[in-house]
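Module 6 notes. Inverse folding takes a fixed backbone as the condition and produces residue identities as the prediction. Think of it as a translation problem where the source language is geometry and the target language is the twenty amino acids. Below is one complete input and output pair. Work through it position by position during the lab.
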């Protein structure tokens, strides 16, 4: 039976995959992400996911390896993880009262060297927010390890008015699509992942 490995340090991805009923282990990928604004976001997040998964798959060729990358864009501008709370505040002000896009790319490396990549897009609409709301948000949630300086799953209702698309995808993993892709990968080797 092939092992399933999640090549990620993200606690959110771990939680989502576990909730989906998949038995897996974690091996954090040593791969460096690419940040190149000239590459379209859909392509960039898939490429980063592929780099993360491939680096772990190279060491564990018998496993099915999952890598992912979540990017947040507004007006074509990427919003990374903030370096400090002041940068997080500036990022949240950019998102205030507006719609932005969250794109998560996923790569699944199969044991025969096959790699499938895909992505999912979710539109997120923010309430108009001021410094008071941002302060309240910072008192209950940590914006620092998250692309876009917020976690929709962590008191997201303070900031988020609504979404179009999948909630899981904003959190870091489009679970439904991942399960479908795992079934395909498992079918190729005759093993049911969930
Ligand atoms: C927008 C948003 C992002 N995030 C998180 C998901 C990801 O963990 C993170 C985006 O950074 P990523 O670079 O995609 O992932 P990571 O560095 O946390 O983990 P790894 O590369 O090892 O897989 O932001 C949320 O938790 N909630 C949100 O609402």
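Target side of the pair, the amino acids:
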């Amino acid at each position: 039976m092939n092992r399933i490995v999640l090549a990620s340090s993200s606690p959110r991805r771990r939680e989502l995959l576990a909730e989906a009923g998949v038995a897996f282990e974690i091996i954090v990928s040593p791969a460096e992400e690419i940040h190149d604004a000239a590459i379209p976001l859909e392509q960039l997040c898939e490429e980063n996911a592929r780099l993360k998964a491939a680096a772990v798959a190279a060491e564990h060729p018998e496993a099915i390896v999952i890598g992912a990358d979540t990017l947040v864009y507004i007006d074509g501008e990427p919003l990374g993880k903030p370096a400090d709370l002041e940068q997080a505040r500036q990022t949240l002000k950019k998102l205030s009262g507006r719609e932005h896009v969250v794109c998560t790319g996923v790569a699944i490396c199969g044991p025969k060297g096959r790699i499938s990549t895909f992505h999912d897009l979710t539109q997120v609409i923010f309430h108009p927010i001021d410094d008071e709301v941002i302060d309240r948000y910072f008192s209950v949630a940590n914006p620092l390890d998250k692309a876009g300086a917020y976690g929709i799953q962590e008191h997201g209702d303070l900031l988020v008015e609504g979404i179009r698309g999948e909630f899981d995808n904003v959190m870091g993993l489009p679970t439904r699509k991942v399960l479908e892709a795992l079934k395909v990968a498992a079918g190729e080797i005759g093993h049911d992942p969930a």
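Reference fact for the lab report: The radius of gyration is 17 Å.
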